[in-house]
Design goal:
77 residues, alpha+beta, three-stranded antiparallel β-sheet, 3 strands
């Protein structure tokens, strides 16, 4: 019987998107399972940037992803 790697079954359950959202003190990183913008797109205005993560990066922590993919420049309003 073939052995299955431990991460094989878990990979599908990991967040798929790395998202920068508008926070109270500037851009904040988040990981989302789907690009669901909520009812009537209410989340869309909060999203500054997003990236579909490659399979091998989905397990990385937010801090590692934030260093790898820095926040977009946001103009002060």
């Amino acid at each position: 019987m073939a052995r299955r790697r431990a991460t094989e079954g878990e990979a599908g359950d990991l967040p798929r998107y790395f998202v920068w959202v508008r926070g109270l003190e500037g851009p904040e990183p988040q990981k989302w399972m789907t690009m669901d913008f909520g009812v009537d797109g209410w989340k869309r205005a909060q999203v500054l940037a997003y990236l579909e993560l490659p399979q091998e990066e989905r397990h990385l922590s937010l801090s590692m992803l934030a260093r790898r993919y820095p926040p977009p420049r946001v103009e002060a309003s």
